[in-house]
């Protein structure tokens, strides 16, 4: 009897032990594994977020056309892009002299770009390529030193370090280097009152293209415009000023004739225009002709301004010259002509 009782108790204990093991196995299957190989991957999520952040922070060249005096986030983006390829610039969002210098230096290093200091579509394409090519041997500052070799003229006028700048002020306070000759001079396809192939027929490419458009529209309006005098070298200006000074005295001559280095004609961005009605002369009577009135009204549409307007003689320090056109680009020209101001006043604002 005792043996039977002992056997029964042993069987009962075995049954209880089996149930407990079974329950533990089921609970173990329901709980997630603590094995590192089977963990959900928050690391992958972190990597994805990092990749996204890097993509968002990727420096790119802005698509907008920008130039000196512009401000805002697009200018900051441009400055960031220029810094990325090696230029040492601030990121203040102001398109000032340093940014203009960097863009000009960049443009001078690529033949397909016009060196104007204005950031445009063609410049954007080149900048984008440089940003994408980490192996490029591009050298910032290689083409245009930050400072001119000669910093003062013989008359004590500061010399511009960036003579290529489309918006450079050239006057009695800022002069061009004596050896500066634009590399992109061409002869615009417009009328001249002479047939000789002289340097004064030439302008820089960007200005020549727009002068052709201005003349074409004037022709459609039935007007009779002629181009008289464009590019003038430092040496040529020196001879002209010396002749005028000998005849009128240096002080008087400087009211209507620029000293060498101080003439806009050396920029290649200026052209004196005239008409048969004033016998192809360059005098104030041109402003009263149909051609002169039309040019004053429409020049800005083609990027030109009347550089020495009437009533602004104390600012420009030159007499009224309705015949003297200066290319500054459409945006700037429209603002200057609309406000009735000079280039000096435009940059003083």
From TrEMBL:
CDD domains: LD-carboxypeptidase. Residues 1-22 form the signal peptide. Keywords: Carboxypeptidase, Hydrolase, Protease, Signal. Residues 201-329 form the D-alanyl-D-alanine carboxypeptidase-like core domain. InterPro entries: DD-CPase-like, Peptidoglycan-bd-like, PGBD-like_sf, PGBDSf, VanY-like_core_dom, VanY/YodJ_core_dom, Zn_M74/Hedgehog-like. Residues 21-75 are annotated as: Disordered. This is D-alanyl-D-alanine carboxypeptidase family protein. It comes from Oceanobacillus kapialis.
